[in-house]
Amino acid sequence: MHCAVLVFPGSNCDNDLYKAILQIKRATAEYVWHTDTDLDRFDVLLIPGGFTYGDYLRPGALAGVSPVIASVKKAANSGKLILGICNGFQILIEAGLLPGALLPNQSLQFICDVVPVKVVQSESPFTARYQRDDILRLPIAHGSGNYYCDEITHEELESNGQIAFSFPPENNPNGSVAGITGLLNEQRNVLGMMPHPERAVKTWLGSTDGLGLFQSMLEHHTA
Amino acid sequence: MEMILPTEDREMARTQLKEMAEKLLANPVIEDFQIHIKEA
What we know:
heterodimer, A: alpha/beta, two-stranded antiparallel ribbon, 5 helices, B: mainly alpha, 0% strand
């Protein structure tokens, strides 16, 4: 499984994501600068976290219209797996590949913590290794992870099974609607999530709960 | 937001601004916009 780790001006989690992929046997990764539009050689596209363009205008807004994004959209339509983490989730939303919006955290503070994250949808190429209702311990580090969508969209997301991860109601750090913190597109080949699975792949990082996500992707790809 | 467009054609300016707002400057999920044009 050959993965592209897209790098924009201001991406800063690209290195961690690249290294996380190298933990998975038979997966390889390559950095791709955002002006590169040829992504055909990749099986999977990964959009890392960071502060692309300094969050100018809105987080992910400028990266969302970057040259590489047209190729990301084409890949998404063809069914390739696309994973956006944190700022990557913001970029997928601004690019229109996922519905809704990511607002500033309710507290208006940047939150850096390790939190419980519930697996809501285990039937997806990203979550097949988990069971529904599993609680993962994953790091979060964001200022604008407060997911918003209107009621109609929310109902559609629920009935289509597009909500991948959520914060338990008693522990919702950022005020997201229904605690939503991971979202799939309708075809379930695009996942955006605020928590950082790539920071939970070694025991000495404090959690290995993120490994299942990358392993699921490999298994889906090699099936 | 204020910007100066290199045109004297109000209708073209309005069309361009609407496209800019729809594509990038505003996020239609959470924002709407109004365009006001003034001669520079």
